Amino acid sequence: MSDSFDDIFELFSIAEAKEIKISDTLPSGNYPIVITRAEIKKKDDKSWLSLGCQISEGHEMSGRYKTFSLYLRNGHPNPKVCNIHAKIRQSLDKALALDRMTLENIIGRSLIVKIYTTEKEGNVYENIDRFLAE
After folding, report:
1. What local confidence, expressed as pLDDT, does residue 21 receive?
2. CATH code, 41
């Protein structure tokens, strides 16, 4: 039995994949979330905090899972990106109101993420404006 790759998987065209990505983008707004995963990731010359979050009950998109990335200090070759992410990270610290934030003690914490969307060359991107206390 010699199934080819195309026989086993139904692949999306580039246009179909783009539509799926656009429909997965959260519209601008405030979303109550619970942090379900937190880890530091590294690739090449970049390092970031990866937060797995689930939208909380009571919101029309409750149950939906999203991953947010925050570049660490000097975690991106572009200093402007690091400065933007430092401000977002400060809002995370303030929203969680912890004496000392660790990967372990933020899991299970509830807060609000404020999202705004941008469009560039036909692609829609969701961006974190800031985190807010619940």
Report:
1. 55
2. 2.40.50
